[in-house]
Design a protein that fits this description.
Layout: H1 2-58, E1 77-82, H2 92-100, E2 107-111, H3 113-118, H4 131-146, E3 152-162, E4 165-174, H5 193-266
Parallel strand pairs: 1-2, 1-3
Antiparallel strand pairs: 3-4
Length: 267
């Protein structure tokens, strides 16, 4: 019986240590949520402005001559995959990779340590992915697309719905779709719409990449907080169950010792 109580004490101590770790990680995630959400919301406003501008330009018939609007048979596809730098975030990374697996013939461009490890590419950070990095990547991709080195560009990232809900999705960004705006009536672009579009598209792609990275990080932090909260609750429940089992084992051991003493004194 003493061996049983000793084993239970070891298990209680082990689970307690795990709960302390999950609590700490949950607190770290909570401390990052507000900053991540602020960056995400600003990014959404920026992306909305970029998409509005691109849609207006793409509505002009002259812009149909742009290489970035040329619709080709998607034989060769490139997809930017944005995942987290760390694990322990529930299904966050798994959902991204599950969606990426639906495009087995695409060339993957990873952002985030987990994605880089998955696709065996040099490490970069999704949390600290900067606009300068996005601009460099966008410049390379736009040049390659204009030279018809590939036919379609997409981004797999995670949409932040709420602290409790995040959804992996794919967004196609090249080629640009013909806009449904009422042309560029009332707007004057110098030197002309086509030239402006061909120059704006690089900043548009860089902006979308940056915004998706920020929203993905906000989703990762939220998913990690929920996962750590759940893990802490499960650990506490396990500790309660083990403590109850320990008390019963200890009470049984004491009862047995008393019985042996009484039996010995009667002899």
């Amino acid at each position: 019986m003493s061996e049983n109580t000793k084993a239970l004490r070891v298990r209680i101590k082990s689970v307690t240590s795990t709960m302390q770790l999950t609590n700490a990680m949950g607190l770290v995630a909570s401390s990052k949520i507000r900053r991540a959400n602020e960056a995400m919301l600003k990014g959404r406003d920026y992306a909305s402005a970029l998409e509005e501008t691109a849609a207006v330009l793409a509505s002009d018939r002259e812009c149909l001559k742009s290489p970035y609007m040329k619709q080709r048979e998607p034989v060769k596809t490139k997809i930017i995959v944005i995942a987290g730098d760390r694990g322990l975030a529930g299904g966050y990374n798994a959902n991204v990779f599950r969606l990426a697996a639906e495009y087995p013939d695409a060339e993957m461009i990873p952002i985030g340590k987990r994605a880089c490890e998955r696709f065996d590419k040099p490490y970069n950070s999704s949390e600290h992915f900067s606009f300068d990095e996005a601009a460099k990547l966008a410049d390379e991709l736009c040049t390659a697309f204009a030279n018809e080195e590939f036919d379609r560009l997409g981004i797999i990232s995670t949409k932040y719905n709420s602290v409790m809900s995040q959804e992996a999705y794919i967004k196609w960004i090249l080629p640009l779709n013909k806009g449904d705006k009422k042309g560029t009536a009332g707007m004057i672009f110098e030197p002309d719409c086509l030239t402006v579009l061909n120059n704006v598209v690089r900043e548009y792609v860089a902006g979308i990449i940056t915004v998706c990275a920020r929203e993905s990080f906000a989703s990762e932090v939220a998913a990690r907080r929920m996962a750590m909260d759940s893990a802490s609750k499960n650990a506490q429940q396990m500790i309660n169950d083990l403590q109850l089992e320990y008390n019963r084992a200890r009470q049984g051991a004491i009862t047995q010792e008393i019985t042996e003493i009484v039996a010995g004194s009667g002899n």
